[in-house]
Structures are given as structure tokens and as C-alpha cells.
Write a structure and sequence with these properties.
This protein is α+β, with helices and mostly antiparallel strands. It is built from three helices and seven strands; from the N terminus they run E-E-E-E-H-E-E-E-H-H. Strands 1, 2, 3, 4, 5, 6 and 7 form a seven-stranded mixed β-sheet that branches. Belongs to the Nudix hydrolase family. NudJ subfamily.
């Protein structure tokens, strides 16, 4: 039997600030309703910038323009052994971008099924409810953004590879 290949889950997230408040989503998660930045998984064939634009639109119905990379974060979640299977875990590699959400929400555009609503919160309001965060990265990304962490968009290079010869 061939061993299973390990691979981290690549995700993207968007930090959007407007008038001192941050765009967040309230979403269903395995732990209940939680707050998160607009975020999701990289899909085959897209760049990280394309993924964060798509995910932000799908989760907030607002167009997003990435302006800089805030950081790259790796998190590992362990899952204990259960009657259904052995102990396991999952590793996420998250690329967080900051930028602007252009204009009002696109009327009539449905949000992803797990998204309950979008909301704007200050950093202090978000800091006051860590138990509602999807992961500790929610606050970490905002703190890094507020500290001025910015990398140019071309810090992450995307190269297409054609058919092998």
C-alpha cells in the first residue's frame, strides 16, 4: 500500500480596513458561528491574488483589489483519535493580503452558503471577543496589518509551466 502524500492546505485571506473598521464575515464552522476575514482555499489554476479576489467576492459580494501581502502564516491543527479513526491533523498555509473593497455590496449576489453575514468591526471590538474568532490568525493578521507589515504583490511569483516535453 502506497503511503498517503502529505500536503498543506493553501488558503488566502483579505484584510480590508475602512474608517478604522475591518471587513469580517460571520460563518458556520465545525465549532459554531465564528468571525473570520474573507478567506478560503486556493483553487487549481489560479494565482494567490486571483484566489483572494474570488474568495472576497464570494464571501462578501464586494469586489476586492489586493494592494500588498501582509504575511504568510502556517498553522497546524491536531485532531485526537476518535472511534471513527486515528489521530490526525491538518496544516494550513495562509497568504493574507490587504487591499480595498470597491464600493458597496453587489446587490442580489448570494454569499457562500456558510456565510451568515458580513460586518465591520474595529480592532478593539475584535480583540474583545477572541472566543468568536475562527482561528488565532484572525487577530494576528490584523495586528500585523496595523503594525505596517506590507510586502509588494510581486513578492509571490506565479509561474505557469506548460506541458512536459
Amino acid at each position: 500500500m502506497k503511503p498517503e502524500t502529505w500536503a498543506p492546505h493553501v488558503t488566502v485571506a483579505a484584510v480590508v480596513e475602512r474608517d478604522g473598521r475591518f471587513l469580517l464575515v460571520e460563518e458556520h464552522s465545525p465549532a459554531g458561528l465564528r468571525l473570520n476575514q474573507p478567506a478560503g482555499h486556493l483553487e487549481a489554476g489560479e494565482s494567490l491574488a486571483q484566489a483572494v479576489i474570488r474568495e472576497t467576492l464570494e464571501e462578501t459580494a464586494q469586489p476586492f483589489t489586493p494592494e500588498a501581502l501582509v504575511g504568510v502564516y502556517m498553522t497546524h491543527f491536531s485532531r485526537p483519535e476518535t472511534v471513527d479513526g486515528p489521530a490526525s491533523g491538518v496544516t494550513y498555509l495562509r497568504f493574507t493580503y490587504c487591499g480595498s473593497a470597491g464600493g458597496p455590496r453587489i446587490e442580489g449576489r448570494a454569499l457562500d452558503p456558510d456565510i451568515v453575514r458580513t460586518l465591520w468591526m474595529s480592532a478593539d471590538e475584535l480583540r474583545a471577543c477572541p472566543e468568536r474568532h475562527r482561528t488565532p490568525l484572525v487577530m494576528q493578521c490584523i495586528d500585523d496589518y496595523l503594525a505596517g507589515r506590507r510586502f509588494p504583490l510581486d513578492f509571490v511569483q506565479t509561474h505557469s509551466v506548460g506541458p512536459s516535453r
